[in-house]
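Action item from last week, closing it out:
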Amino acid sequence: MRIAEIIGTVTLSRAHPSLKGGRWLIGVPYSLEGLKGGKADGEDLVLYDDLGAGLGSVIGVSESGEAAAPFLPEKKPVDAYCACLLDQIAVS
């Protein structure tokens, strides 16, 4: 799981029927140095969200097979998923 900040949304003209009820967001992951400095510095990624994250939210992102795991036994074509909303982060 990685930590990312939401910087935008994605609008689709058509979506897979199994993805109703969620939305697509653009997130920028943090590196360890980025977490210490408070600035997301990774490569943007598009992720599926059904938790209600908004612009500026800091979230936990599951990727690859872990992103599809919360939906089992139903299959969803998801590569990155907003797994949690974070209130605060403490880096030592």
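Closing note: DSSP finds two helices and five strands in the chain.
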